[in-house]
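Onboarding guide, step 5: your first structure request.
Type a short instruction followed by the sequence, for example:

Predict the 3D structure of this protein.
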Amino acid sequence: MDRDKIIAIILVVGLVFMFVALLGVISVTGFVLFFVTSPSGEIVDTTPIVNTVPTTPTTPTVPANPATPNAPVEPNEDAPVCGNNEVEGEEDCESDSDCSSNEECSSCACITINANAELLDDIEITDLVYWCPRDFDGESGLAVKIFKFKNNGSDFSYDGRVTLKSESVWGEDSITTNNAFDFEVDGGKTIDIYQKDLLRSDAPYLFLGNKTGEVTITFEFGDEYYIEHTYTLRGQDFADANCQ
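The system replies with structure tokens like these:
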């Protein structure tokens, strides 16, 4: 048998096997489609149903020491203001009337009055020079910027700091002289205290306020001596200082 015939036989046999295999594939495919297709022609979902086993819920972990909620923050109270005629916070007083009879009000604290202090009744205030600045509340009011004294007695001198105080219907004020101030006045002579002699640089004067009525001005020479001057503040005093 020659070579060409052998090749022809092999090709024929291969085609036969391929045809048989194709028939097998068609038969199997048709069988599968028959069982997966509903009579109405709808495709049936062949995805297998997986039975899920419910898991046991996990108990939440509770911290051993639960945090304590913070206490509510209390609002800050306004700091007390000395000189507003209201006793607030840790203040003892706003005027001498808030203290006992043997005490006086100084910077909103009741302090014991030195009963041994001597009244200098020979030294009198002969004149007060006013002007009209703004007080600590920003309102216009009368103030004393020059104090004039006359000594009707014997010579007197004091080289310590002098405290000037006022008490009026408006309220109270207190100011001191500079350390360098020397209060020395011979008998029959005069002496003045000016703004430049006062320690408070931002308001070098003694406030009397913006109301008429009785005023008491006191000058304290340490715990040894004092001068007291009481008079009535008039509307004309405000007019003369152009303080309307």
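Each response can be followed by summary notes, for example: The chain has two helices and 13 strands.
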